[in-house]
Write a sequence for this structure.
């Protein structure tokens, strides 16, 4: 075979480079499309809702007059529900993930469990709502309370926490585990002194991503019966007459941000659309700041963990 | 086999077989381990020397599908009724690649003591210092004990890992190619250390480096394809090996 001439080689390279550039352009187009949509959404909410960004908006309860309606009960409700969710989902999810990675024998039962945990993450959230309506609201008699909502969302994000815990644990090299076992440590000592602390950045990231998903969930919360119009806050511990107990607030009726937004968008009066846009932006800001915290924590904790 | 004084026996492999699932990695190994001597395990890659070494502290028990037959006697290391953790409490190990924990230098050495329930700060301070001195790294790290161990150099990390193993006064110390990831200067430091350590502790060392085996060990075992081909005093193995295969390996005709 005859060697290619310089012209031929250049032609081949030019053809290849053309494709390079074509794909580059396509990639930039796709990326900017996705980014534009997000930026447009946020900008739209900011512009529409701009006249509601006052302190009153955060400190007022819902109202029939759009200009006086605020999101106090909604953001307090969201925070309290998230608190219950985290308290329930984190210990359960981390313990389950730790067990599966460090203790469980590898056999067909654990394989089935693993597949199903992955599947659970894909179950539509409304199905969790239905399940929770039957179990938490009626069977356990928790009612339409913060507790029910928190536990429902905990179920929803449990698979996320389990999966991220397992991935974080799997990233720890085997030689660290062997180093610990070689001095005579038990599995539990190895987990307590090494596995859990070293997996913590990954676990925390998973927890916050899970919570960020939970805070925006609407369907399961509607299913278990969050109120859409609520003009009081859950009882603060030891406040009121007679004094409320430390945990009385968990049984209180509540609303959350997405429900408040949903409620406002379904009103005929267009003035409420301004409220919805403003509340939507606040919810967005909550989610984004949670993600920012996750990124910061991961960065800070990983600095000291290297092998 | 031995001409002069017979050393005391520390442990002894008797008909030791080992299986990774269906694959037999060790075949009927018989070998004495003499007290306060260094025994080197040599042989080509995949001959089972690391597998054999890791039988001494039951490291294989961490993974499913591994199976032993036979025993390592005297210290009852493989007896079915001995908990592997009990075995590891008495047998220290230093790995091929330095594996300090991502914790402080102090905590790395104190870990074995903490595992044994020691929380008295004075005791920990004393024992950590002694272990670091024994591992010949005290002078280098005494002012930086709270620093993160992975920031040390590779050779320092490996000596730190030796200190970690020494802190709990093991009877038997296992070295799995401890210098294969180190430069020649760090390697020399570790070899010197092994030479000092054998006054107090019995040492088994796997090495790919024949000069290293000749330098540090009193006894040498040549393994091939999961079998113990030859065991004897290091001088005899290197000067006049009895088995043709040992001679081929040592003279570089194979492996």
């Amino acid at each position: 075979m005859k060697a290619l001439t310089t012209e031929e080689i250049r032609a081949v390279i030019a053809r290849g480079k053309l494709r390079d550039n074509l794909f580059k352009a396509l990639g930039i187009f796709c990326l900017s499309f996705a980014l534009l949509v997000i930026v447009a959404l946020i900008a739209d909410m900011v512009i529409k809702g701009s006249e509601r960004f006052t302190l009153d908006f955060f400190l007022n309860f819902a109202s029939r007059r759009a200009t006086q309606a605020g999101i106090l009960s909604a953001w307090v409700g969201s925070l309290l529900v998230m608190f219950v969710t985290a308290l329930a989902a984190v210990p359960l999810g981390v313990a389950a993930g730790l067990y599966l990675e460090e203790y469980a024998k590898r056999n067909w039962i654990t394989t089935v469990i693993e597949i199903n945990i992955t599947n659970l993450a894909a179950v539509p959230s409304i199905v969790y709502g239905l399940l929770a309506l039957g179990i938490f609201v009626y069977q356990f008699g928790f009612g339409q309370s913060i507790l029910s909502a928190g536990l429902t969302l905990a179920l929803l994000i449990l698979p996320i926490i389990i999966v991220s815990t397992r991935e974080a644990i799997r990233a720890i090299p085997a030689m660290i585990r062997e180093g610990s076992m070689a001095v005579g440590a038990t599995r539990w000592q190895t987990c307590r002194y090494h596995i859990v602390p070293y997996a913590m950045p990954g676990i925390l990231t998973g927890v916050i991503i899970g919570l960020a998903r939970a805070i925006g969930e609407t369907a399961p919360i509607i299913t278990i019966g969050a109120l859409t119009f609520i003009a009081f806050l859950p009882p603060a511990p030891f406040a009121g007459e007679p004094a409320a107990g430390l945990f009385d607030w968990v049984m209180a009726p509540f609303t959350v941000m997405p429900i408040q937004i949903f409620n406002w968008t379904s009103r005929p009066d267009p003035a409420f659309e301004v409220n919805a846009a403003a509340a939507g932006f606040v919810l967005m800001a909550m989610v984004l700041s949670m993600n920012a915290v996750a990124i910061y924590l991961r960065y800070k904790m990983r600095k000291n963990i290297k092998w | 086999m031995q001409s002069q004084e017979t050393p005391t026996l520390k442990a002894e492999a008797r008909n030791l077989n080992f299986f990774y699932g269906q694959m037999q990695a060790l075949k009927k190994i018989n070998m004495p381990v003499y007290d306060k001597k260094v025994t080197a395990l040599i042989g080509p890659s995949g001959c089972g020397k690391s597998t054999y070494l890791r039988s001494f502290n039951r490291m294989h028990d961490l993974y499913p599908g591994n199976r032993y037959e036979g025993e390592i006697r005297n210290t009852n290391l493989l007896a079915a009724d001995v908990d592997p953790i009990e075995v590891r409490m008495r047998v220290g190990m230093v790995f091929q690649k330095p594996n300090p924990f991502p914790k402080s230098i102090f905590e790395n050495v104190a870990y074995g003591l903490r595992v044994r329930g020691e929380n008295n700060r004075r005791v920990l301070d004393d024992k950590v210092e002694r272990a670091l001195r024994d591992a010949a790294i005290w002078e280098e790290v005494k002012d930086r004990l709270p620093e993160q161990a992975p920031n040390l150099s590779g050779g320092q990390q490996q000596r730190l890992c030796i200190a970690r193993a020494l802190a709990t006064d093991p009877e038997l110390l296992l070295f799995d190619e401890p210098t294969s990831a180190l430069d020649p200067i760090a390697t020399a430091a570790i070899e010197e250390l092994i030479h000092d350590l054998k006054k107090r502790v019995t040492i088994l060392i796997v090495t790919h480096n024949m000069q290293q085996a000749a330098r540090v060990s009193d006894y040498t075992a040549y393994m091939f394809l999961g079998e113990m081909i030859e065991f004897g005093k290091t001088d005899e193995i290197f000067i006049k090996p009895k088995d043709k295969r040992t001679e081929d390996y040592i003279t570089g005709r194979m492996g």
